[in-house]
């Protein structure tokens, strides 16, 4: 047995990445405490009668070479129809011969699919490209009057740009102009957060939208029209919101994390389910143990270790510390807010909407659709068939994920599954996407604390960070662990950086917190 032990809270991407990295690069044995009996956290895949649900939608795409290599070392890329897989990655073109290096997903399960990205906005009962493209089609749908207002307000925003936006509303207007913000951003964003954009920190926009602007969207669109289509899977020079391809496990994101979990256990790590951490034991400025209650049996167990990695919500971590926490830190912790998430899985015979092409009507190819319509609570719609055809038990049916955002105190969260299903079906039919008679089956999944909020006491979060960073052997990683709206790859990178620190004996944690504040994820542009 190894001389040292790491206790890791949570078997999501960050926790599992930390465990795998410790086994790869140190003598530290990881023990993961997972509150549920599932693997993958927010990146798990839920199986409902053979129909798989990806909670929130997870593109396997990163500008970090380290993350891309990490994924592909575990699930290789599929071959293409010609029997080879031609990709340009890290500046090198490679033809991967199948089946040895390029597995066929029809015969092999351990495989990454190469998927085309398509997402649109549904507004005024019609589709708009996302990001918005100022094509003849867009102009016709919006009308000349609205387009003129968009043009004037965008020009005004560019002439009198707010270089230091404080709120998310300021951020959107500075990038897109007030009219475009009101048309395409305000309603959806406020559905997600349940708060006015004027009260949300601009940091959310800077983190999630980064360099996207009208000018960049137009440049990307023109390159697609007149330039050679980029084949680089890594797409390192492309804005995240503009990428055209991504990788995706055959059976959804949970397949990746189940593969990692199996490997962690095979190599001597432990994953213990049903463990809810209730206490953080501290002595002489160091964490020495965690206590967790088994949610099935009620048994309380103390887990001692040398290093501690936490992906649990910061609010709960602070509440569990068994020494006197400074009053200001507790105050900030109590004021942190989280947005909760409901997915209604809906199996239907067919959609009522199609794309009209010159060759005739065709099934829509969208991975997900932003529902901008203000007369429904529905925020986003996923079409799982278009993520991976293997996500659906019967390919002749359409498997949907209807996404709702709320607080645990809201009436929406407290609805029964039947009530929630009825609402989802009625709303989707009301906006013309399905006919109610085509619904076959449904399931409801509730996920608390899905989105750490950038309001409440978030503007004082540095007080929490300063306090917790003082515990040299405690590492906050992942989305809820850091109260940062991380993507999957960002969460992984925080875990990788934390293990870097363990290996190097580094106590300064700025490198962990810096993940995702740099647009290119610490990778040099080539």
Number of helices: 18
- Strand tally: 23
Number of domains: 4
Helix content: 25-40%
Give the low-pLDDT segments: 86-100, 217-242, 519-526
Topology:
Layout: E1 4-9, H1 13-25, E2 28-33, E3 45-48, E4 51-54, H2 65-72, E5 84-89, E6 92-97, E7 112-116, E8 119-123, E9 126-129, H3 136-142, H4 144-159, H5 168-176, H6 178-193, H7 202-208, H8 214-226, E10 245-249, H9 253-266, E11 270-272, E12 275-283, E13 286-294, E14 300-304, E15 307-310, H10 314-320, H11 327-335, E16 338-348, E17 355-357, E18 360-362, E19 368-371, E20 380-383, H12 384-387, E21 398-406, H13 411-414, H14 417-430, E22 439-452, H15 461-468, E23 474-476, H16 479-482, H17 488-504, H18 510-513
Parallel strand pairs: 1-2, 1-15, 2-11, 8-19, 15-23
Antiparallel strand pairs: 3-4, 5-6, 7-10, 8-9, 12-13, 13-14, 16-21, 16-22, 17-18, 19-20, 20-21
Helix pairs in contact: 1-9, 1-17, 4-5, 5-6, 5-7, 10-11, 11-15
Could you explain the architecture of this structure?
The protein has a 7-stranded mixed sheet. With 526 residues, it is an alpha+beta fold.
At a glance:
This protein is of the alpha+beta class.
Question: What characteristics describe this protein?
Answer:
single chain; 526 residues; alpha+beta; FAD/NAD(P)-binding domain; five-stranded parallel β-sheet; globular; disordered C terminus
């Amino acid at each position: 047995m190894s001389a040292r032990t790491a206790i890791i809270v949570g078997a999501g991407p960050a926790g599992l990445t930390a465990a795998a990295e410790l086994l790869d690069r140190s003598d530290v044995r990881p023990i993961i405490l997972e509150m549920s009996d599932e693997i993958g956290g927010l990146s798990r895949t839920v199986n409902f009668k053979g129909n798989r649900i990806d909670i929130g939608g997870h593109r396997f795409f990163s500008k970090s070479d380290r993350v891309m290599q990490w994924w592909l070392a575990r699930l290789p890329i599929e071959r293409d129809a010609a029997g080879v897989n031609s990709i340009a990655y890290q500046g090198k073109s490679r033809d991967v011969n199948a089946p040895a290096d390029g597995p066929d997903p029809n015969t092999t399960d351990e495989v990454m699919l190469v998927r085309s990205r398509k997402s649109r906005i549904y507004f005024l009962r019609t589709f708009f490209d996302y990001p918005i493209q100022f094509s003849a089609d867009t102009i016709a749908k919006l009308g000349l009057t609205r387009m003129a207002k968009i043009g004037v307000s965008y020009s005004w925003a560019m002439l009198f740009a707010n270089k230091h936006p404080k709120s998310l509303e300021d951020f959107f207007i500075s990038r897109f102009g007030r009219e475009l913000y009101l048309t395409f951003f305000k309603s959806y964003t406020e559905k997600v957060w349940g708060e006015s954009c004027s009260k949300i920190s601009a940091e959310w926009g800077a983190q999630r939208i980064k360099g996207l602007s009208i000018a960049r969207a137009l440049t990307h669109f023109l390159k697609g029209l007149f330039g050679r289509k980029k084949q680089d899977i890594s797409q390192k020079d492309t804005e995240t919101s503009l990428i055209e391809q991504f990788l995706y496990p055959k059976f959804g994101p949970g397949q990746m994390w189940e593969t990692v979990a199996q490997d962690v256990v095979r190599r001597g790590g432990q994953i213990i389910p049903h463990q809810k951490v209730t206490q953080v034991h501290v002595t002489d400025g160091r964490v020495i143990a965690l206590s967790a209650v088994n949610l099935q049996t009620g048994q309380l167990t103390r887990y001692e270790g040398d290093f501690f990695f936490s992906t649990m919500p910061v609010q709960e971590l602070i509440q569990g510390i068994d020494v006197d926490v400074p009053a200001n830190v507790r105050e900030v912790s109590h004021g942190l807010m989280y947005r909760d998430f409901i997915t209604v899985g809906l199996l239907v015979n067919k959609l009522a909407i199609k794309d009209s092409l010159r060759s005739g009507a065709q099934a829509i190819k969208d991975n997900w659709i932003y529902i901008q319509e203000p007369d429904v609570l529905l925020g986003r719609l996923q079409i799982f068939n278009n993520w991976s055809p293997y996500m659906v038990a019967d390919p002749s049916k359409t498997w949907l994920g209807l996404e709702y955002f709320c607080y645990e105190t809201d009436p929406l969260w407290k609805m029964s599954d039947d009530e929630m299903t009825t609402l989802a079906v009625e709303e989707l039919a009301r906006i013309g996407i399905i006919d109610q008679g085509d619904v076959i089956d449904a399931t409801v999944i509730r996920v608390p604390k899905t989105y750490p909020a950038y309001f409440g006491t978030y503007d004082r979060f540095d007080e929490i960070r300063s306090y917790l960073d003082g515990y040299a052997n405690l590492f906050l990683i992942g989305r809820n662990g850091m109260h940062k709206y991380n993507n999957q790859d960002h969460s992984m990178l925080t875990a990788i950086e934390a293990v870097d620190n363990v290996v190097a004996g580094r106590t300064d944690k700025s490198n962990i917190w810096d993940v995702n504040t740099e647009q290119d994820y610490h990778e040099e542009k080539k």
